[in-house]
Every structure is written in C-alpha cells, then in structure tokens.
Write a structure and sequence with these properties.
The chain is mainly α. It is built from three helices and no strands. The chain is elongated. The relative contact order is 0.06.
C-alpha cells in the first residue's frame, strides 16, 4: 500500500510540474514533443512498480548496480594496467622501484 501511495505521489508531482513547463511553452512548435516526452515519462513512472513486482527487486536499481560494478571493475583493471606500464617504463629507463636512479 505504501508503494502505491509513493507511485501516486510521484505521478502527481510529475504531472503538476510538467503542466507548468508545458504552459510556459504553450502554442509553440515544440508542444507536441513536450506531450510525447510527458507520456513516455508517465508510462515509465507507472510501470516501475510493475517491474519491481515481476523481478522481485528494484528493476532499474538492479540494472544500474550491475552496470556500475562493471564500470568500476573495468576502471580498476585499466588503472592496474597503467601502473604496470609505468613500472615497466621506469625499469627500462634505469630507475629502481623507489623512483631513484639505480646504481650500475
């Protein structure tokens, strides 16, 4: 019940805000695009609880979490690769691991 109240509240706030923006651009050549965007966003707002109910978890949150973990993993791999390349470059240039020039 609480989730339905949350959805109704979100839809109401969205419709009120979008009505204000729509009235600012009334009778412009972009009015049909505002209506299209409003309809799509409204459908998404209403469908979110359905996605949550079907999957048993927050659908969008799960997708976002999965995507963020993949991005973070790729970032770590790239960073480790860059550090390894810098280390190899320093060793090739005759520097020790501490950054000072090695004695020959």
């Amino acid at each position: 019940m609480e989730e339905m109240l949350h959805v109704v509240k979100n839809v109401t706030v969205f419709v009120l805000l979008f009505s204000i923006v729509s009235n600012l651009f009334a009778k412009s050549k972009y009015e049909k695009y505002f209506d299209l965007v409003q309809g799509v966003i409204l459908i998404i707002l209403v469908m979110m609880p359905l996605f949550s109910w079907i999957t048993g978890e927050d659908f969008i949150d799960g997708l976002l979490r999965d995507n963020m973990s993949k991005v973070e993993e790729q970032f770590r791999e790239d960073e480790l690769k860059m550090i390894g390349e810098q280390r190899e470059q320093m060793l090739q240039n005759g520097f020790g691991l501490d950054g000072r020039e090695a004695d020959e």
